[in-house]
Amino acid sequence: MRNTNTKSSNGIALIALAISLASTPAAAQESGAQEGDEPAQEDRAPVPILVTGHGLEQTPASVAYGSQEIDREAIVSTGSGRIEDALSSVAGFQQFRRSDSRSSNPSAQGATLRALGGNATSRALVLLDGVPMSDPFFGYIPFGAIAPERLGQARVTRGGGSGPFGAGALAGTIELTSADADTLGLFSGSLLGNNRGETEANATVAGNLGAGFAAISGRWDRGKGFYTTPEDQRAPLSARAAYDSWSVQLRGVAPLTDTIELQARGLVYDDNRTLRFDGADSSSEAQDASLRLVGRGEWQFDLLGYIQARNFSNVVISSTRFVPVLDQRNTPSTGIGGKFELRPPVGEAHVLRLGVDYRRSDGELFETAISAFSGNVTARRNAGGTNTDLGFFLEDDWSIGPVTLTVGARADRYTIRDGFYHAVDGSGALLDDNRFANRSGWEGSFRGGAVVRLSEGLRLRGAAYTGLRLPTLNELYRPFVVFPVVTQANAELKNERLEGFEAGLDFTSGDSVNLALTLFDNKVKDAIANVTIGTNLRQRRNIDAIHARGVEASAGIAMGPVRFDGSLAYVDAEAQGSGFAAALDGNRPSQTPKWVGSATLSYRPADNWLVAATVRHVGAQFEDDLETNVLKSATTLGAYAQIPLAGPVAIVLRGENLTDETIITRNQRGSIDLGVPRTVWAGIKVGL
Question: Residue 686 in contact with residue 190, Cβ under 8 Å?
């Protein structure tokens, strides 16, 4: 078994050392001339050093691909205080299940866009400061570890393909950027409690480090949760969705020269949850570290390296006998990767991006199956493998008068290797011992687009693209049970491929009006789905395709202190299957609603004041691929209020699902799980 703590400790220590070393030249620049330097000239202007903590700027042609930005105010002012709530304001964003990161199994926290879901793996590429956040084994996104108050902005680009790490951007890319010291302030924090006695606490300290800055922040969420089981289905051992999670992030940014800066980040988190029954506990933990060099000189570059040490455990309780039947006691995994992007000087109207990226994911599971009747061990299983992807990318943009053109290509060399599945019975007798053949190959991906400025503030855009996603180690090798349904793994899964195109119209008028409309047609070929192959039996298989066509609209309108932000997505999606998957041909993919909409009205009469209300609608969707179990539509109301109290202190009030709408998150032949009921939060917030 891996010693993940050693890896993480080394990674965090590396970050602390890098911050310390990077501050030295910056401090020297401030300290004046040293022995042997040229005499200072009174008329010599100091060279300004701009430290941002961000990556390279978006290229002019990035607007060709339908995207939407979420500013810091919108990120930190949701009713729930969760990042997934903020992302839900974007038309087309969707999690695998409707429950948030306090009341769902972590392994079900996939993120997707444009109804290209169908399973719990994330089909969207989620980046935090340029680093892919998906779990190396499962492919889920640890939303609970991404604290909104640490972020400066989010940018969501729908549609396949990307420059770096494009092999994960099947449905689009979600780029999260940490806030700088000026945004965070010297000290900020909040402490809130809700009507169930749950608490949320966070604190951040940030300040100058030479000519750069450093920030450390922590967050702790805990509570007894709510009953996810409806009252008429509860049993004596039914439990609330209790949760207890914390995370700490250390980040430092310092200039090495007047055009090159070093960025370092370390993130440690631990997340514990209970779902449905006493003893049905899950835990996820991680230690992530990254180093990044960003050059903004004539030859711009972005050099990034990261390591992720993750683990997951989960206990499954029988829903009839209420005893443990599966102990997924250990799932250590490691993600290692990096990228290098170069932008050579090719003229003001021309941007060329050249680069290479690499990601290696390896991990294994250790689990014990237990008889619900005797309590004896029936099987001990061990499975895992290694996936790698080495990508080369090129993208070129031209600005020709009112027209901007872009074209890009990727070549990915992937490997799926060292896969195995080993099982013995309670006595140690061998049940299965499979070693799966190694696979490798090359895949090409392309994207291109155009933007035409029709008039001041009005532009027409169009794009076409392809995309790629490798099956995760979880999909390849790990079976699972959501009683009474067993889902088998499949080591023969092929890569998913996306083909799509879109056209859109954008209108902006200063900061007061921002309107966007997009029509799209996306198809995932060889889509991986949980296919029903027998009574209470499914297997992960490649079906012919998932085809999604639809429209997305968004609006942002500001009138003095009042602002309206809204989004609406309609998607006509269908599964296309033949042979073993013929029964689902023409069906709507599981967990994909047709209609999703969000509308927020906010009022900011003065600094440190904010009142906002959000109405969100999610249409009906199916639990399964055969359209037998329905999750009815749900419309919820959330609210946020920040009211100054004295100096830097403000009162914060938040509300989730204030109308107490019934939100069905799971329906297995009438066995139902529910989402968050009416919840009211109150507390204080401090910002210096």
Answer: yes
For 468, the token pair is: 């790629």
Q: Which two tokens stand for residue 308?
A: 């992720």
Pairing of strands 671-674, 679-687: unpaired
Q: Which residues pair with 227 in a beta bridge?
A: 240
Which ranges in 588-653 belong to alpha helices (H)?
Answer: none
Which tokens in the block code for residue 496?
């998913």
Report residue 17's pLDDT band, with 50, 70 and 90 as the boundaries.
very low
Whether residue 123 contacts residue 171, with contact meaning beta carbons closer than 8 Å, is answered with: yes
Query: What angle is formed at CA 561 by the lines to CA 557 and CA 567, rounded to 5 degrees?
Result: 30
For residue 327, the surrounding DSSP H or E stretch is: strand 324-330
Report in angstroms the alpha-carbon separations of 30 from 210, 358, 642.
8, 37, 39
Enter the pTM of the model: 0.91
Preceding amide of 484 cis, omega within 30 = yes
**Three-state DSSP class for residue 146:** coil
DSSP string, 651-669: EEEEEESTT----EEEEET
Query: Strand pairing partners for 280?
Result: none
CATH dotted code for 4-26+50-687: 2.40.170.20
CA distances from 386 to 127, 149, 335, 495 (A): 21, 34, 10, 15
Strands 430-435 and 439-455 come out as unpaired
Instruction: Name the pLDDT band for 304 (thresholds 50, 70, 90).
Output: very high
Enumerate the domain spans of the chain: 4-26+50-687
The helix (run of H) or strand (run of E) holding residue 640 is strand 634-646
Task: Write down the pLDDT at residue 320.
Answer: 87
> Beta strand pairing status for 621-622 and 595-603?
unpaired
Cβ atoms of 127 and 175 within 8 Å: the answer is yes
